[in-house]
Amino acid sequence: MTRRIFSLLACCCLACFSVAPAFASVRIKDIAALQGVRDNQIMGYGLVVGLQGTGDTMRNSVFTEQSIQSMLDRLGVNVRGINLRTRNVAAVLVTADLPPFVQPGSRIDVTVSSLGDASSLLGGTLILTSLLGVDGQTYAMAQGQVAVTGFAETGPAASVVQNVPTAGRIANGALIEREVPGQLRSIGPLVLQLRNPDFGTAVKITDAINAFGVHKYGHELAHEIDQRSVALNKPANLGTTRFIAQIGDLSIEPDTPARVVIDSRSGTVVIGQDVQISTVAVTQGNLTVRISNAPVISQPAPFSQGKTVVAPITEIDANQGGGPISIVRGSNLRSLVAGLNQIGLKPDGIISILQAIKSAGALQADLVVQ
């Protein structure tokens, strides 16, 4: 019976946990990237038109009115000196990530975010907008229907807002106009950069690449630089693209640091596989204070000179709950989860206990609080 109860506790969920296998092989290209091959960020300023009265107010968003006037001037329409009162236009910022080695004519997704006091971008269309890089050059042109997942409805005495209706995306909404400087063949020494730096993982990547190189080319192809970087030596008769593709498919078992990550806003707790807790005794109690105010009307006797007054009566009730002392010890993730589940706490209580265990020096891992 005891064994069955322990098995059930071990399978319980701790703040949406699922215990993963101790070892898992992953491809090198999933945990490392070639140095110098990265995205570039571009942005631009534009207008979203066609809104159903949910756009910017010209009185509060002066830049929207100026943008409309400038756009109409370029189209041959003179509206200078006219007070615009349209609510179907919103000023927006358009952002996107420019992939490496992208060619003119390709398309990428863009994100559209409101700048003014527009209440929703639902149903709007982004008109032609230039997207600039940090060098001031135009790399893409964006235009299209804005897809918004949220909505906002306002009535005389109430309003309903779901998600974020003032931001949306345009799938394939930007057309690449300029090639990003630099080519794969122009990259100097080839270096792999680990997304999660670790000395053990860097050594394992080096050993896997060298074993492949000795077997296929007769010599080693890599050496570790530090916990973040592994230098590569490309064979002379092999192209860079084919070489990176070959080593990217090699599999290793990466090392992960013992770490506990806590998101105090959402109550999420993530515990790494190698986290251990030394034997500690834990108890947890909550203090609840309830304060209630009840008004009492004091009315004077008939024909008296007194006044009717309202006097509040305050009642205070304090209750402190406690729990039994439990022994928590975890030599692996499964036993640690089972030990914490024995206490029967909510995520907020688990966060407090983990922080206290770390302060006591019994948590053998890094504690990261977000």
Automatic annotation (TrEMBL):
| Top-level division of the source organism's lineage | Bacteria
An annotated GO BP: bacterial-type flagellum-dependent cell motility
Question: Which is a Pfam family this sequence falls into?
Answer: FlgI
Where can this protein be found?
A: Periplasm; Bacterial flagellum basal body
Q: Which InterPro entries match?
A: Flag_FlgI (IPR001782)
GO MF, one term, reads: structural molecule activity
**Keyword set, alphabetical order:** Bacterial flagellum, Cell projection, Cilium, Flagellum, Periplasm, Signal
Q: Name one GO cellular component term.
A: outer membrane-bounded periplasmic space
Q: Where is the signal peptide?
A: 1-24
In terms of PANTHER family, this protein maps to: FLAGELLAR P-RING PERIPLASMIC PROTEIN FLGI, FLAGELLAR P-RING PROTEIN
- Tell me the function of this protein: Assembles around the rod to form the L-ring and probably protects the motor/basal body from shearing forces during rotation.
Q: To which protein family does this belong? A: Belongs to the FlgI family.
Assembly and interaction partners: The basal body constitutes a major portion of the flagellar organelle and consists of four rings (L,P,S, and M) mounted on a central rod.
Listed name of the protein: Flagellar P-ring protein
Organism encoding this protein: Beijerinckia indica subsp. indica (strain ATCC 9039 / DSM 1715 / NCIMB 8712)
Tell me the gene name. flgI
